[in-house]
From TrEMBL:
Record-linked PROSITE patterns: PROKAR_LIPOPROTEIN
Protein name, UniProt field: DUF4349 domain-containing protein
Signal sequence interval, chain numbering: 1-28
Keyword terms: Membrane, Signal, Transmembrane, Transmembrane helix
Amino acid sequence: MRFSLCYMAPMALLAISCSAGTSSYSEAADTTTIAVADSTTFSNDITSLNSPSRKRVRTADVRCRVSNVFNTVSALEHVVAGVDGIIAESNMQNYEVTVKDVPYATDSLRRIQLYTPVATMTLRVPAAHLDSVVHTLTSMATFIEFRTLKDEDKTLSYLSNSMKNDGPKSPAVKPTPFTNTVEADAYRDEKHVTETDRKIANMAILDDVHYATFTVQVFQPQMADQQVIVNPERITRTGFGTQIRMALRTGLESIGALFILLIACWPYLLLLALGFYFYHKGLRKVLRKKLTTL
């Protein structure tokens, strides 16, 4: 037992030191990121439009027809992974155009379904590799519906946020006869939130500068899917012998129902018979008197 504890103690110390090192590294990385987002210094002169220090955000949007949607999407995903990009969204779907059923056999149908394969992708690639990724897609296209490339300069927005955060700090607000402690705290909180929002906005600009957004829409010509299915009318249709048995049974049930109805109406039938009897008897008397008078 002592032997195992002697070996476990150095491992525990090593794990603690590693976790502490990771935590310090994460905190240092966060501090560096925030410092960069607030920096107003640039390594090059930004008066030139082509200066590397400018914060340029690049985007691309392409819609095209390809011969095979699945192969194109797979190739793009492979290319993006090769340039250390990420696939923010990848969606493939078949849009149904029409469905038609035609006779195939006595008990089956051939179902023909026309559909259009469509895929949409949102890719984040390093800005330096955007042109090569776009060229990879357009080289596989058989028809390009549109291709849009944008290069938006966010340098002034970035400088505005940084200079506002690096400006002279206003003196601390102290409660006065006209302001209380709650109002002073609310002012400090609002100021902190505003500065934090500027830092986050600059971080978003830096992220968009380093990674371009590439929106892809690809489709291919209509395709037909054929399958043999069961004819529901044939399967659900009753056999000839069963139809005869059901017809005989229905006739017997109808006769039985009529007989029961007659039994239920026997008082009315009795009154009808008596009326007919007396009417016939009176008619015979009238006819006999007429004959005697003649």
